[in-house]
Amino acid sequence: MTFGLIRRFLCAAAATCLLLWSSPVDAAEVLQVRSGTLLQIGDRNRTYSVQLACVVVDPADDAEAVDWIRKQLPRRSKVNLRPTGSSDGVLIAHINHLDGQGNHDLGAELIESGLASSSGSC
Questions:
Q1: Is residue 11 domain-resident?
Q2: What does the pLDDT average to over 57-62?
Q3: Per-residue pLDDT band at 23 (split at 50, 70, 90)
Q4: Which of 4, 7, 61, 69 has its CA 20 to 30 A from that of 80?
Protein backbone atom coordinates (compact mmCIF):
# COMPACT_ATOMS: atom_id res chain seq x y z
CA MET A 1 0.00 0.00 0.00
CA THR A 2 2.84 2.44 0.82
CA PHE A 3 4.56 1.70 -2.50
CA GLY A 4 1.37 2.57 -4.41
CA LEU A 5 1.05 5.87 -2.54
CA ILE A 6 4.67 6.80 -3.28
CA ARG A 7 4.24 5.85 -6.91
CA ARG A 8 1.14 8.07 -7.25
CA PHE A 9 2.93 10.96 -5.59
CA LEU A 10 5.92 10.65 -7.95
CA CYS A 11 3.64 10.47 -11.01
CA ALA A 12 1.74 13.56 -9.86
CA ALA A 13 5.01 15.42 -9.22
CA ALA A 14 6.37 14.49 -12.66
CA ALA A 15 3.15 15.61 -14.37
CA THR A 16 3.27 18.92 -12.50
CA CYS A 17 6.88 19.48 -13.58
CA LEU A 18 6.00 18.80 -17.22
CA LEU A 19 3.11 21.27 -17.11
CA LEU A 20 5.06 24.01 -15.34
CA TRP A 21 8.28 23.77 -17.31
CA SER A 22 7.04 22.91 -20.78
CA SER A 23 8.87 24.66 -23.59
CA PRO A 24 7.12 27.59 -25.28
CA VAL A 25 5.60 27.18 -28.72
CA ASP A 26 7.95 28.31 -31.44
CA ALA A 27 6.91 31.62 -32.96
CA ALA A 28 7.08 32.32 -36.66
CA GLU A 29 10.15 34.16 -37.99
CA VAL A 30 10.61 36.96 -40.48
CA LEU A 31 12.53 35.68 -43.48
CA GLN A 32 12.24 38.61 -45.89
CA VAL A 33 10.56 42.00 -46.29
CA ARG A 34 9.30 42.14 -49.88
CA SER A 35 7.44 45.45 -49.81
CA GLY A 36 5.92 47.94 -47.41
CA THR A 37 3.02 45.58 -46.76
CA LEU A 38 4.29 42.12 -47.80
CA LEU A 39 6.60 39.88 -45.77
CA GLN A 40 7.87 36.33 -46.09
CA ILE A 41 7.34 34.52 -42.80
CA GLY A 42 8.65 31.08 -41.83
CA ASP A 43 7.11 28.67 -39.35
CA ARG A 44 9.31 25.61 -38.83
CA ASN A 45 9.26 23.92 -42.25
CA ARG A 46 6.68 26.20 -43.97
CA THR A 47 6.87 29.67 -45.44
CA TYR A 48 4.06 32.14 -45.99
CA SER A 49 3.63 35.33 -47.94
CA VAL A 50 1.87 37.61 -45.46
CA GLN A 51 0.29 40.95 -46.25
CA LEU A 52 -0.23 43.41 -43.40
CA ALA A 53 -3.93 43.67 -42.61
CA CYS A 54 -5.64 47.08 -42.57
CA VAL A 55 -2.59 48.91 -43.93
CA VAL A 56 -2.05 50.82 -47.18
CA VAL A 57 1.38 52.17 -48.15
CA ASP A 58 1.63 54.83 -50.83
CA PRO A 59 3.90 53.62 -53.66
CA ALA A 60 6.08 56.73 -53.17
CA ASP A 61 6.70 55.69 -49.54
CA ASP A 62 7.24 51.98 -50.20
CA ALA A 63 11.06 51.98 -50.09
CA GLU A 64 11.07 53.98 -46.86
CA ALA A 65 8.43 51.65 -45.37
CA VAL A 66 10.54 48.62 -46.31
CA ASP A 67 13.57 50.14 -44.57
CA TRP A 68 11.47 50.95 -41.48
CA ILE A 69 10.09 47.40 -41.29
CA ARG A 70 13.57 45.91 -41.71
CA LYS A 71 14.80 48.00 -38.77
CA GLN A 72 11.85 46.92 -36.63
CA LEU A 73 12.02 43.28 -37.70
CA PRO A 74 15.48 42.10 -38.73
CA ARG A 75 15.68 38.64 -40.27
CA ARG A 76 14.77 35.86 -37.85
CA SER A 77 12.74 38.19 -35.62
CA LYS A 78 10.01 36.28 -33.80
CA VAL A 79 6.44 37.24 -34.68
CA ASN A 80 2.90 36.08 -34.07
CA LEU A 81 0.34 36.19 -36.85
CA ARG A 82 -3.34 37.03 -36.37
CA PRO A 83 -4.93 36.08 -39.71
CA THR A 84 -7.90 38.03 -41.03
CA GLY A 85 -8.21 36.32 -44.41
CA SER A 86 -6.39 35.50 -47.62
CA SER A 87 -6.28 36.70 -51.19
CA ASP A 88 -4.70 34.94 -54.18
CA GLY A 89 -2.69 32.61 -51.94
CA VAL A 90 -1.38 35.44 -49.74
CA LEU A 91 -2.26 35.35 -46.05
CA ILE A 92 -3.63 38.66 -44.75
CA ALA A 93 -2.81 39.10 -41.08
CA HIS A 94 -1.92 41.41 -38.25
CA ILE A 95 1.75 40.82 -37.43
CA ASN A 96 2.81 41.21 -33.81
CA HIS A 97 6.53 41.32 -33.19
CA LEU A 98 7.72 39.76 -29.99
CA ASP A 99 10.59 41.75 -28.54
CA GLY A 100 10.37 40.75 -24.90
CA GLN A 101 8.57 43.99 -24.06
CA GLY A 102 5.13 42.76 -25.11
CA ASN A 103 3.35 42.35 -28.40
CA HIS A 104 3.57 45.23 -30.86
CA ASP A 105 1.28 45.39 -33.89
CA LEU A 106 3.52 46.14 -36.86
CA GLY A 107 0.73 47.64 -38.99
CA ALA A 108 -0.41 50.03 -36.26
CA GLU A 109 3.18 51.15 -35.66
CA LEU A 110 3.73 51.66 -39.40
CA ILE A 111 0.63 53.88 -39.49
CA GLU A 112 1.83 55.79 -36.39
CA SER A 113 5.19 56.39 -38.08
CA GLY A 114 3.38 58.17 -40.92
CA LEU A 115 4.57 55.75 -43.61
CA ALA A 116 1.16 54.12 -44.08
CA SER A 117 -2.51 54.74 -43.64
CA SER A 118 -5.39 52.60 -42.46
CA SER A 119 -7.25 50.82 -45.24
CA GLY A 120 -10.56 51.63 -43.56
CA SER A 121 -11.82 48.07 -43.96
CA CYS A 122 -10.86 47.07 -40.42
A1: no
A2: 96
A3: very low
A4: 61
Q: Give the domain extent around 75.
A: 28-118
Q: Residue 67: which of 119, 115, 102 has the closest Cα?
A: 115
Q: Is residue 9 part of a domain?
A: no
Of 120 and 59, the structure prediction assigns the larger pLDDT to 59
- In a 3-state reduction of DSSP, which class is residue 101? coil
**Is-contact 43 37, C-beta < 8 A?**
no
Half-sphere exposure (Cβ direction) of 109: Cα atoms closer than 13 Å? 14
CB 31 within 8 A of CB 41: yes
CATH code for the domain of 103: 2.40.50.90
The span from the CA of 88 to the CA of 80, in Å, is 22
Burial of 59 (0-12, 13-18, 19+ CB in 10 A): exposed
Q: How many domains does the chain have?
A: 1
Cβ partners under 8 Å of residue 47, min gap 6: 31, 40, 41
